[in-house]
Design goal:
Shape: flat
Radius of gyration: 20 Å
Number of strands: 0
Helix content: 55-70%
Number of helices: 3
Number of domains: 2
Largest sheet: none
Strand content: under 5%
Length: about 100
């Protein structure tokens, strides 16, 4: 008999958590948090993405090298974002002399 890492109970728990987080996303979208709107939206989306990656894509039960590869990919996305943002912030505004 093989070991079933993704049992029905686990999948149902993750599904319920994702549905609850979706309801929270909708409720948070109705409230104005000012500059923190994007932060809360990305935080909830990140938690939902982590649940999908860990349980439905089986990263939790798979070899650790796949989690490492995913983590390195996320790191380089943040590096790309950081350097893009740095480029935009440090641009000098040129005014016309005409």
């Amino acid at each position: 008999m093989s070991i079933d890492n993704s049992s029905f109970k686990t999948n149902l728990s993750v599904l319920i958590a994702l549905l609850i987080l979706t309801v929270i996303t909708v409720l948070v979208a109705q409230v104005d948090f000012g500059i923190f709107n994007a932060f809360f939206a990305m935080l909830i989306a990140g938690i939902k993405g982590a649940l999908v990656l860990m349980y439905f894509m089986h990263l939790k039960y798979d070899e650790k090298i796949y989690s490492l590869i995913f983590g390195i990919s996320v790191f380089f996305v943040f590096v790309l974002y950081f350097f893009s943002k740095l480029d935009i912030i440090t641009r000098i505004i040129q005014t016309s002399v005409l």
